[in-house]
Amino acid sequence: MFVSNDKIPTNLLILDSKNYDKWHKQMKVLFGYQDVLDMITDGITPLGKEATAAQQAKFKEDKKKDYKALFLIHSCVDSDNFEKVGDCDSAKTAWGILEKAYAGVDKAKVVRLQTHKRQFELLQMEDKEMINDYVTRVTRLGSQMKSCGEAVSEQNFVSKVLRSLTPRFDNIVVALEESKDLKTMTKDELQSSLEAHEQRMDERGNDKAKAKVAFASPFQREEQEIEREIAF
Q1: DSSP 30-56
Q2: Bridge partners of 215?
Q3: Which residue of 37, 49, 114, 133 has the fewest CB atoms within a 10 Å radius of its CB?
Q4: Which three-class secondary structure state does DSSP give residue 18?
């Protein structure tokens, strides 16, 4: 598929009843890439009766761009949506019809965003959860909020993680708050510091376990000897 010698990918997202939000974003990028975005936002300025030659030339060029934008819309909708816009004489009209048809998508996004925000505030690290797993959960929820129109800043992400860790991270949280500027800390820096602390705690736990076994072994052997003597 070619338009003005610009190759258009053949695997573009096709609008159906479930993917309008993603399709809307992709199409705006495509319009910009094909230099026809103004046809969607502004449309074509009507040509006056006493238009100059320059105005007539511009109108002709704009009309070509409008057909190009309309062709892109036609090429990226399923049969049901084509029925809505197939008879439109301008890209702006077709675009407006689809926006109106899927206006409920924006309302649904608002509801989903409120749900995700509540979940984000209530999210807490579980007792035996690893830092990487917890950060992944927070990141995933942040991505869901972003898809609904509200991004989580690095500062909010860092603050959220620090205040929702389990008590075993209290020492590192205090240390970070005292030694680091949390306003400039990135989530990658935070995760790296927490994982290093987590690794040190695990290593100490293993050392203590080994030491306990080493000290306990003589006593265990003595108890076994006593048990054998009693048995005889």
Answers
A1: HHHHTT-HHHHHT-PPPPPTT--HHHH
A2: none
A3: 49
A4: coil
| Number of other CB atoms surrounding residue 19 within 10 Å | 15
Q: Which amino acid is at 44?
A: I
Q: What does each C-alpha distance from 203 to 65, 160, 207, 214 come to in angstroms?
A: 65, 27, 6, 17
* The pTM of the whole model exceeds 0.85: no
Residue whose structure tokens are 């509540």: 118
Alpha carbon distance 33, 193 (integer Å)? 41
* Tens digit of each residue's pLDDT (9 = 90 or more) over 62-114: 999 999 999 999 999 999 999 999 999 999 999 999 999 887 777 778 888 99
Torsion of CA 40, 18, 107, 87, to 10 degrees: 40
Residue 77 three-state SS: strand
pLDDT in tens, 46-73: 888 888 999 999 999 999 999 999 999 9
